[in-house]
Amino acid sequence: MSPSPGETVFDKAAARIVRGVDELRTALAPHRRAGARIGLVPTMGFLHDGHVSLLHAARSECDVVVMSLFVNPTQFGPNEDLDRYPRDEERDLRLAAAAGTDLVFAPNIAEIYPDGAATTVEVDGGLTSVLDGDPSRRGPEHFRGVTTIVAKLFNIVGPDVAYFGQKDAQQAAVIKRMVRDLDFPLRVEVMPTVREEDGLAMSSRNVYLEAADRIRAVALSRALAACEQQALALDSLDAGLAAARIELAAAAIEPEYLEARDAETLQPVDRLGVGRPVLIAVAARVGGARLIDNVLIESIVD
Ligand code: PAF
Question: Which residues are CB-neighbours of 245 under 8 A, at least 6 positions away?
Fold first, then answer.
């Protein structure tokens, strides 16, 4: 018998940790046969309240909650922070259990990328070569790494619903396109960005911020708020973006990008449309951290 959504299936005190693909499939099989709804929260660990909100959403909607914990090397560029990416598996397991996670899938690299692995999944369509995917930034290879691991997790876990954060808006748009194009039989749920009290978007990479930079970093969310406010007040994206630039400059932050794009296609937009949300996305290096954030501006419907 499968439990009702909101109930954990396994031991509440400690989420069960599974390292192997076969072991995970075996653990899930009886629940799948019983018609349980399986929710997946993919993570790279070092959990914060943003991840926890995804786990809570999964817990409230699904019968079985699986969290993956895997720092995926293929989505890091050669000059990125793979080696120093923060890790604390014990703490992650505690937080996952407290949020009602049933199974934590924490494979090692060889389990996911066996010798000779030669297949990748790539979304094109202009979604992965802009913003973070611009070759001068993380590049399309970053998203190829993300879509490859996420496609593998979908095949390994077979979730009915997969949960992602709006903070990684481009990642969410790319994954939604992959799910649509490759007919993955699941729903992608994108949950709102969780912020610190002062507005900074939660991110595992915030640990790289030294005290003074932590204060400056709030300018990103301030800039996005100013952008939304001005854009709506003046019905002008240009005015909104100008307001955002002023906020960033006041904190001596030079953005890598600050752009208005269609939230689904990621094509550039220059005005608030009718009926389609506009994504304002920003990326900037603040001290030792490269931060991203975004806001969705709902269209003014005439
Ligand atoms: O958003 C992340 O943490 C990662 O990109 C993801 C989706 C877990 C894939 O490694």
Answer: 223, 255, 258
